[in-house]
């Protein structure tokens, strides 16, 4: 066997207890873990990945390889900027996998939450696989959406109704009706919603720094924005999401 194999492992939204039995088995199958270094401000994200490995891997001997994340250009063409960034990441990953993982070896990328939901890992590995001989599989993980609704003790959907999963940019451009989960929103786009819109917000879900707020946009919107700004300044990064439900 000369090809290298990669596990893409969803590790949940922050609480090590979210890691599934399937993920634990995949962790124990890997010799090299690749992680994107995003600077000192986000070093605790790599530290949490290391903590998960230390907790669940039964035999020592695995290695962590931290990769410098290519800068993402600011462009008016959002899709073009993301495509260029993914291509740059693919080059970094292909070089690292070829250099750090022996032929026939097993490596892993640990994806925050679930690899299928607003995560670039699978798209980038597809590009890597076109350049070097690798195979890969995907281990699903607990998403921020699941963690958010569990921590607020609410169902995701209204009875028999759909749910939109979108981003802050799309919410600003198109709005929503019914229920919507909003991710990747650095601009508190819920401010554009009607004041009687219900919101359930969470940040750093599943970690010791978890923040939870619920109410209507009119009641708690400014409080959420203030909490978010303070937390981001304190930690240097923030991962948050929220569920909106339009008033009847």
TrEMBL record:
List the Gene3D superfamilies. Cobalt-precorrin-4 Transmethylase, Domain 1 (3.40.1010.10), Methyltransferase, Cobalt-precorrin-4 Transmethylase, Domain 2 (3.30.950.10)
**Signal sequence span per UniProt?**
none
Methyltransferase in keyword set: yes
The pathway to which it is assigned is: Cofactor biosynthesis; adenosylcobalamin biosynthesis
Is Flavoprotein found in the keyword set?
no
Which one of the record's GO molecular function terms can you name? precorrin-6A synthase (deacetylating) activity
| Domain Tetrapyrrole methylase: from-to ranges | 6-220
Write the record's keywords in alphabetical order, separated by commas.
Answer: Cobalamin biosynthesis, Methyltransferase, S-adenosyl-L-methionine, Transferase
For biological process, the GO terms are: cobalamin biosynthetic process; methylation
Q: Which residues form a coiled coil?
A: none
Q: Which InterPro entries match?
A: 4pyrrol_Mease, 4pyrrol_Methylase_sf, 4pyrrole_Mease_sub1, 4pyrrole_Mease_sub2, CobF
Q: Which PANTHER family match?
A: COBALT-PRECORRIN-2 C(20)-METHYLTRANSFERASE, PRECORRIN-6A SYNTHASE [DEACETYLATING]
What is the name of the protein in this document? Precorrin-6A synthase (Deacetylating)
Q: Where does this protein come from, organism-wise? A: Mycobacterium noviomagense
Organism phylogeny: Bacteria, Bacillati, Actinomycetota, Actinomycetes, Mycobacteriales
Q: Which gene is transcribed and translated to give this protein? A: cobF
């Amino acid at each position: 066997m000369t090809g290298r194999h990669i596990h893409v492992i969803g590790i949940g939204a922050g609480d090590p207890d979210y890691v599934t039995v399937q993920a634990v088995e995949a962790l124990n199958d890997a010799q090299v873990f690749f992680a994107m270094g995003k600077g000192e401000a986000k070093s605790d994200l790599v530290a949490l990945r290391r903590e998960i490995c230390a907790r669940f891997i039964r035999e020592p001997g695995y290695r962590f390889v931290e990769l410098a994340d290519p800068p993402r250009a600011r462009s008016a063409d959002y899709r073009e900027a993301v495509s260029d960034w993914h291509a740059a990441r693919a080059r970094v990953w292909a070089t690292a996998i070829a250099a750090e993982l022996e032929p026939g070896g097993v490596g892993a990328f640990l994806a925050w939450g679930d690899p299928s939901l607003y995560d670039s890992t699978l798209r980038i590995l597809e590009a890597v696989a076109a350049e070097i001989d690798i195979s890969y599989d995907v281990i699903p993980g607990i998403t921020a959406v699941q963690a958010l609704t569990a921590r607020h003790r609410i169902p995701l959907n209204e009875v028999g109704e759909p749910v939109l999963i979108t981003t802050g940019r799309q919410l600003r451009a198109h709005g929503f009706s019914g229920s919507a989960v909003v991710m990747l929103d650095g601009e508190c786009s819920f401010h554009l919603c009607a004041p009687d819109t219900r919101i359930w917000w969470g940040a750093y879900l599943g970690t010791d720094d978890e923040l939870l707020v619920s109410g209507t946009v009119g009641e708690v919107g400014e409080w959420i924005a203030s909490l978010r700004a303070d937390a981001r300044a304190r930690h240097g990064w923030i991962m948050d999401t929220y569920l909106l439900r339009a008033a009847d």
